[in-house]
Amino acid sequence: MDSTRDLFVALARRYAFADLGALAPAADIAEVCEFGQRLLSLDAEDFAAEARVVPADLRRRARACHMPQTPREQPRGALESLRPAYELLLEVISVRWHRRELSPMIAAVHIASEYLPLLAFEPQLGHAGDPARWPEALSVAGSRFGVIGDRECDHTKSEQSATNRTLRVSAEPAEGWRAYFDRQHSQVAGALAVCVATCRNPCTAMDWIEPEPRADLQLRARTALAFAETPLVRLRHAAPVGHGFGVPSPEEVLDAWERSRAGLDKNAIGSAALKDDGFPLPGLPALFSAVADAPIEPATLLDGVSRHIVSLLEHD
Q1: Within a domain: 68
Q2: Domain around 154
Q3: Domain-embedded: residue 257
């Protein structure tokens, strides 16, 4: 019995929640494992699912990363602030690295790249890109934001469609809301960055931000766009989660990250990636912090789940 329990404890400490959940000796342990696996899999739709046997603090921290499933759902979770979600992303990236699960690790990096512009915009918006709370000034007279077919706008056709949808999706039923987040919200993130950082024909869409903070946001948003084009993020297309069948090796991941760091070292925001902070991808937490203009450190949420499972096993 002790050897079996030792095996279960080892699985919990390795964050092998799916394996342990299938073997769990008790229903409450299986339920906590399911909760942990949702977090590890970044299943943000279900972070707020009821899991009564999970300690309240862990459930509260998971809800902060949850994506609301209806326009009026409260609390707003990751639409209130993306910082807890990015801290969880960093923890997932670290766990996947140490487990040598490099394809899901690169998938997590890709998710981080898609929404990074919203992390940059959060200080100005006062939220994390909640479609129910866009500033009215985003679409004042002279703004091309959300105008489909305007040839003077630097947005692609898909970005124009996404920005048009984001201005009205909060009035749609829950099904439309969820479909928007599945397909278009990440494009809105990139479109906002284009507006403030790279647009060749600026309109009035960003005039609600004063010149000094806008200049700071421009630098952070430009770095967010640059991160999405780095060799590290492009590795996704060589992994099964992308368009190919190869899985990058640890050496390939580290090489891609070193080349990414060099490419990002163009300004004070991008150079934050050069920090050696002990993270598996050194400087990634510092880069996210610089883009966010706020501290972003790896979460301890998965670790908390692991410790709770171990305590249950030891007292079973």
Answers
A1: yes
A2: 136-207
A3: yes
Report whether 87 contacts 297 (CB < 8 A).
yes
Query: Within 10 Å of residue 282's Cβ, how many Cβ atoms?
Result: 17
Query: Do both 230 and 202 map to the same domain?
Result: no
Count of domains in the chain? 2
pLDDT digits (tens, 9 = 90+) for 19-41: 999 999 899 999 999 999 999 99
Write down the residue that tokens 């647009």 correspond to.
199
This prediction has a pTM of 0.95
> CA nearest 4: which of 22, 25, 19?
25
Measure Cα distances from 165 to 49, 179, 183, 224 in Å.
28, 11, 11, 23
CA-based torsion, 304, 305, 311, 314: positive or negative: negative
Given 179, 207, 235, the domain boundary residue is: 207
Q: Give a yes or no: residue 218 inside a domain.
A: no
